[in-house]
Amino acid sequence: MAAFEEGIVYEEEQRNPVWSSFTLAKEHIEALVVINLVWSLTLLPVLAALGLGAWPLWLRLFCLFIGITAMAASSGCVFCLVAKVCEDDPLTWSLLRQTMRENALNSVRRLAPLYGVFGPGLLVLALASSLHQPLLEILVQFVLLWLLFCSLYWGPLFADRSDAPSWRILRVSLRLAWRYPAQSLRTGVVVLILLLFGAVSLVGILLIVPVLVALLQTYQYRQLVARQRGHIAMLH
Prior knowledge:
12 helices, membrane, DUF624 domain-containing protein, transmembrane, transmembrane helix
């Protein structure tokens, strides 16, 4: 049941989400590896665009566009599937196909605009640096870091309600990060460690790291939602 509805919350056991997510990953390792392998297929066009310098530029840009679009579509589906795993739902091919069919387009519509903010933000940061505008540079850095901090909750919020508009997902993520900075920081540090491990280990990226990050973020979100005790409608 969706935690964003008034008076409805997850009856989540109040445990450390880091250890809980690792324990759950151990119990459902096969399902999580399958989810991660399916997601990893979206990396192939991006790797082709970046690694095959002999290809014409237009073809590489086309592959890059296809890859980024596929990643945007599949990322939301990963969080939806991870939420199912958290509820001990068995992962079947029919569930995988149904999740992709029902959430892929919404993932592009809802999550892509949020993550896409970082691209223009980095361009503005580079422009501010080249123009020697330190105040603007500091401001942009602060905004980007705060958005990165809040992005810990974008995927789990999308899994809770895939039709919620992007601005509502952003609003609730800001609220959660503001109210629970210590818990969010703890999760962010562990996520960073996992991503660093994945960066130096291609096998880790292909097999488990991205879905483990999604699982950790989902567990943290579920725990914080349980603390709301139904007093706040999460996405309304």
